[in-house]
Amino acid sequence: MAKKNKVVIMGCGRVGAHLAGLLDSQGHQVTVLDVNSTSFRRLPPTFSGNALLGDGTDEDSLRKAGIEVADAFIAVTEGDNRNVMGAQVAKHTFKVPRVICRIYDPLRQELYRNLGLEALSPTTTFAELLRDTLLGKEK
Fold first, then answer.
1. Environment class of 96 (CB within 10 Å of its CB; exposed 0-12, middle 13-18, buried 19+)
2. CATH value at residue 126
């Protein structure tokens, strides 16, 4: 992502807020959607993007977030099902070029990849990191 992108992030938990701050600090146009307005307190004080109250699985909320001109959509709520639903709407309804979703259940990860979604499992990633650290493997 070398160019400056328009990114919609669904979920303003720890990961969503941190990612929003990172992307914003690099000059990307970031909009964060969350169903809970208190979640926006996690955003860094320097955040200059948009924080919108809304459901990332709802087409009207996504339109308000600018999904129709977004370069990327990232779903990082606490729920696998919500993340997949939001990602599918972004990819198939709005044709967002890059769609990534977090999936906690590693068994579902492959299934969602088969649906054409970029699905990342922190469960798998962290387990591999712990294994490598335990066994003294450097990355």
1. buried
2. 3.40.50.720
